[in-house]
Amino acid sequence: MANRWKNTLTDRDVTDESVYLNRRHIIAGAAAGLGLSGIGQSASAEDLEPTSWEDITSYCNYYEFGTRKDDPSKYAHMLTTEPWSVKIDGMVDKPGDYAFEDIMSKMTVEERIYRFRCVEAWSMVVPWNGFELADLLELAGVQSDAKYVAFETVNRPEEMPGMRYPVLEWPYVEGLRMDEAMHPLTIMATGIYGKDIPNQNGAPLRLVVPWKYGFKSIKSIVRITLTDTQPPTSWNKAGPREYGFYSNVNPEVDHPRWSQASERVLGTGLFARRQDTLMFNGYAEEVASLYEGMDLTKFY
Amino acid sequence: MTLSDLINTGLQRIPPWAIYLASVAYAGWLFWLGIDNRLGADPVKALEHQLGEVALYLLVIGLAVSPFRRTLGINLLKFRRAIGLACFFFVVCHLLVWAVLDVQRLDRVWADIVKRPYITVGMAAFVLLLPLAITSNNVSVRKMGAAAWGKLHKLIYPAAILGAVHYVMLVKGWQVRPLVFLGVILGLIAWRYLSKLPSRQSTTREIL
């Protein structure tokens, strides 16, 4: 059952490729904010403009390829993404290795234009293509006692030069509560701007949970495990005081080392104003109910 | 003629002011790249980080002057003041980009300095550099006397360590690059205490 959630932003349908590929240069050449008027109609009242392909694919946090923002775009070509399969196991009716092609043949791919907010206080707008995680989980048959979903990134030191350094404990792991995983906003992305997702952005398939900090959206997934206990997550293991299991975007709960009240919007130039960060990254209407009654300063 | 002689002869021909010129030109060029949108998706961070990193490189080079001369016979003493002042210049640029282009609001700047340990540490390093920059001229050396001046300028050691710690603290996780900076800086300072040569008196005199 795809299409549970509708974009309020559909201007991408009329965005010409030559325009979005060079957006940063257009902005650079025009007076701030005026250079965008030619790019489709802004369907949304919030005026959410997708970040350029160039910026989305060159500014990445994917530490398996190195900790610099341009390392992933330099080295991710080393990763073999064909063939690819995802092991789905744990509390499911049909555990097994699911070939990427088989998954894709059964899923409905949609476009979702989401805000993407990094824990480092920068943000983008990404026009993802992908399918709802709920559909994939239903394919495997989630058992009723499963409470959490654990994810694991591919573990290939020979193809991922950043893994030489113990910046994090490898492989990268993430997790969601079942209701978060089944939420219609939660997708597995397989493309950006209608093209196959580049390796540096998490090919061939990655999680996207738009109301959480970017590091929750684990890349290049090889394993999904349904469990009844809260799974360990990489950044939480590395710094439990700084990165919680939930990691919902929250302007009122600061990272211990920096404020989360505002963000720099990527691709807007050297003199752009910071933007106020929105509760749940602007998706409060859709997801705030999931956390009702929870102390978000405690469950950060 | 040994290799170090050859290098020293070559260095003789470079005037110290070339370092000031190169520093201002490089900072200006970086800023222009930012304006021209050639610093990537996040030009503010790119500029901020590059300026900070250049300052750290200059700190390392400045601290390496004595060990270089003692162990390799390469003499960079005549550049040491320029290296130090260039380092301070990049620290000031780094600070300005952070405050004006990144944080953008004075109340937030202050809040960060008080509240965020890595910024507190970076700011402490800056404060320690201030008296060094102010007294980096011949008049100050004469007025203070060589011994007192030399003593004051020992502040470069804690400043350098704080600068590197600032870098280690601000990145996510334990990254290699900042740790290498910290290691090299600690090593260069340790060398001064470990090397048998009586360093203080003689180096102070040689600076003059």
Share of residues in strands of chain A: 15-25%
Largest sheet of chain B: none
**Order of SSEs of chain B:** HHHHHHHHHHH
| Multimerization status | heterodimer
Radius of gyration of chain A: 19 Å
Mean pLDDT of chain A: 89
- State the end-to-end CA separation of chain B: 27 Å
Strands of chain A, total number: 12
Describe the structure.
The complex is a heterodimer of chains A (300) and B (208). Chain A is built from 9 helices and 12 strands. Chain A is an alpha+beta fold and 300 residues long. In chain A, strands 3, 4, 7, 8, 9, 11 and 12 form a 7-stranded mixed β-sheet that branches. In chain A, a hairpin with a 4-residue loop joins strand 3 and strand 4 (122-132). The longest helix of chain A is centred in the middle third of the chain and has 8 residues, at 133-140. Chain A is globular and about 50 Å long. By secondary structure, chain B is mainly alpha-helical. Chain B has helices at residues 3-12, 17-35, 43-72, 80-103, 106-115, 117-134, 138-144, 146-152, 156-170, 176-194, 199-207. In chain B, helix 7 packs across helix 8. The chains are: A alpha+beta (300), B mainly alpha (208). Chain A binds chain B through residues 24-25, 27-28, 51, 54-55, 58-59, 63, 67, 69-70, 119-120, 122, 124, 165-168, 235, 238-239, 257-259, 264, 266-267, 269-271, 273-274, and chain B through 34-37, 39-45, 47, 101-102, 104, 108, 111-112, 116-118, 169-177.
Secondary structure layout:
The complex is a heterodimer of chains A (300) and B (208).
Chain A: H1 17-21, H2 23-29, H3 53-58, H4 71-75, E1 85-90, E2 96-99, H5 100-106, E3 110-117, E4 122-132, H6 133-140, E5 148-153, E6 173-177, H7 178-182, E7 187-192, E8 195-196, E9 206-208, E10 221-227, H8 234-238, E11 262-265, E12 275-276, H9 284-287
Parallel strand pairs in A: 1-10, 4-11
Antiparallel strand pairs in A: 1-2, 3-4, 4-7, 5-6, 5-10, 7-8, 7-9, 11-12
Chain B: H1 3-12, H2 17-35, H3 43-72, H4 80-103, H5 106-115, H6 117-134, H7 138-144, H8 146-152, H9 156-170, H10 176-194, H11 199-207
Helix pairs in contact in B: 2-3, 2-4, 3-4, 3-9, 3-10, 4-6, 5-6, 6-9, 7-8, 8-11, 9-10
